Amino acid sequence: MEVEWLITLTNNSLFGTRPLTQDEKFQLRTLYLAFGQEEIDWLAEREAVTRHDVKAVEYLVRDRLSTLGLDRIAELTHFACTSEDINSLAYALTVKRAICEVWLPAYRGVIEKLRALALQHADAPMLARTHGQPATPTTMGKELGVFVWRLERVLAQLEKGEYLGKFSGATGTWSAHLAAEPRVAWPNLAREFVEALGLTFNPLTTQIESHDWQVELYDRVRHAGGILHNLATDVWTYISLGYFAQIPVAGATGSSTMPHKINPIRFENAEANLELSSALLSSLAQTLVTSRLQRDLTDSTTQRNIGVALGHSLLALDNLTRGLGEISLSRDVLLADLDANWEVLGEAIQTVVRAEVTAGRSSISDPYALLKELTRGRRVGPEDLAEFVRGLDIGEEAKQRLLELTPATYTGLAEQLTRSKL
Questions:
Q1: Is 330 a catalytic residue?
Q2: 211 in catalytic set
Q3: Which residue among 17, 255, 292, 342 is buried most deeply as judged by most CB within 10 Å?
C-alpha cells in the first residue's frame, strides 16, 4: 500500500514530482513482490524501537527509496496517511484473496461433491427420522440436496460481498491533504486509488474503516459453517445407522483396540473445526462492529485472528470433501429399514381417507384418530395394513392406490425435486 500510494502521488505529478519510469516502478514494487525474511527481520528490529508496526514499514520504504536513488520522493512516503488508511486496504486485499482464492474454491468443492452424491442417490428411498423417530420416507439424494440448496444460497451472498477500504486521513476528513494542497480533489483521487486495487471505496468513516463489511462476511462464513456442521452431524448419524458404509483406506487404523472399526473421523474433525471457526468468527463480528469514538485499538488485536478463524473453517472443508469421498450408500440397509416400518404409511392412509370423505365417497368421522389407534406405539406389517385398507369405507380407486403403496415407494416428489433443483 505504501509503495502504490507513492506511485499514485508521483503519477499525478503532485508537489513538483514527475512520474516514475517503468524501471523505477518495477524496482519499487519489487520491495513487496520479493518481500521475505530479510525484510521481516529488518522490520522486527525497527519495530522494537518504534513500538508501531506501520511506522516501521514507513521506515523500511524510506530505506529502500534511498537504496534505489529515489530520496527525492522520500517525504511522500506515508503522505497524509493514518495507519488505518494502509491497514484497512491491506486487510481488505488479504481477506479478499483468502476468501476468493482459497476458501471459496474449497467451499464450492464441498458443494460439488455433495451435488454429485445427491444426484447419484436421488432415487434411493430412505426412512426419514423426524425427531429421531420413523417418519414419512424420503430419498437420500433429496436430503443431501437440501444441503446443496442451503449452501448455494449462502454462496450467492458471499460472492456478492464487498471488501471496503478507506483512505481519508486521521479522522476521515482529508484535513492534512487539503492543508498541503487544497486544489486537489483528494476524495476522488482516494476513490480511484482504492478501486484500482479491486476494493470498494468507503467515503465516510472515522479514523478507521468501520469494518461492517467484515462483520457481514464473517457472519456469512459462520452461517455456511453452521450448515456444514449440520451436514457433518447428519452424515455421521447416517453412518451410525448403517445407511452409509465407510470405504476402508489402506493402512489406516480405525481404533487402537478394536480392529473392526472405521471411525467417521473426517466428519468429527469437521465438526470440531467448524465449532472453533464459528466461535472465532462470532467474536470477530461482535468486536469489529464497534470502535470507541473515532478510534480504538481493539480491532487491531482482533483482526490478527482472521486467518485462524478461516483456517479452522478450511480444515473442516478439506475433511468434509475427503469424508464425502470415502462413503458408500448401503441401499440394502435403507430398504430393510423401510420394510421394518410400514406404520409410516399411516399418514398416506388417513390423508386419502380425508380426501374421500370430502369427495363424498366415505362416511368415516375421524380418519386421523382411526390411524392413530392402528399405528401409534406399535409395529404393523404389510398384511396388517392391507387388511385394514380393504376394510375402509372409501372408493375402490383410492383403495387400490393404497394397497399398491409401500414404504419404499412412498417418497412423493423426492427424486424429481432433487434432479430438477440441482
A1: no
A2: no
A3: 342
